[in-house]
Amino acid sequence: MFKGGVARNIVADTAEVGVEVRSADDAKLEREAEAVIEAFRAAAEEFGAELEFTKEYIPVAQLEEGVRFLTAVLKARTG
Predict the structure, then answer these.
(1) CA–CA separation, 23 and 17 (whole Å)
(2) What are phi and psi of 72, to 5 degrees?
(3) How far apart are CA 5 and CA 20, in angstroms?
(4) Which residues have CB under 8 Å from 72's CB, separation 6+?
(5) Which position has the higher pLDDT, 8 or 43?
(6) φ, ψ at 3 (rounded to 5°)
(7) What are the b/e assignments for 14-39, b being 16+ CB within 10 Å?
(8) Taking the model in full, what pTM does it have?
(9) What span, in angstroms and rounded, lies between the C-alpha atoms of 73 and 79?
(10) Which of these, 6, 30, 4, lies nearest to 18 by C-alpha position?
């Protein structure tokens, strides 16, 4: 997801970017998330921008629960 600017071909005052990183391996998830954040930090520093971010973590157990639920729903729908 990307939001920024109010017209074409301008440099926006602010921009919002949404990034999602997924992995069934918690350690890999953390490494990849940190790599994304570091890339944004480096770009912000290079261009003199300010970076603010929030990181939301959804444990693998919750994802597995959701997958089991959706699988059950799909099986019930298809008979």
Answers:
(1) 20
(2) -65, -40
(3) 22
(4) none
(5) 43
(6) -135, 130
(7) eeeeeeeeeeeeeeebeeebeeeeee
(8) 0.64
(9) 10
(10) 4
CA dihedral (4, 6, 8, 11) in degrees, to 10, reads -60
Residue 26 and residue 32 in contact, taking contact as beta carbons nearer than 8 Å: no
Q: How far apart are CA 11 and CA 13, in angstroms?
A: 7
Q: Which residues pair with 4 in a beta bridge?
A: 15
- Calculate the average pLDDT of the chain: 80
The gap from C-alpha 52 to its chain's centroid, in whole angstroms, comes to 14
Integer Cα distance of 12 and 5 in angstroms = 4
Q: Which helix (H) or strand (E) holds 15?
A: strand 15-17
**Position 62 pLDDT exceeds 70:** no
Phi, psi angles (nearest 5°) of residue 76: -65, -35
In this structure, are residues 51 and 33 in contact, taking their beta carbons and an 8 Å threshold? no
- Give the percent of the chain with pLDDT over 70: 73
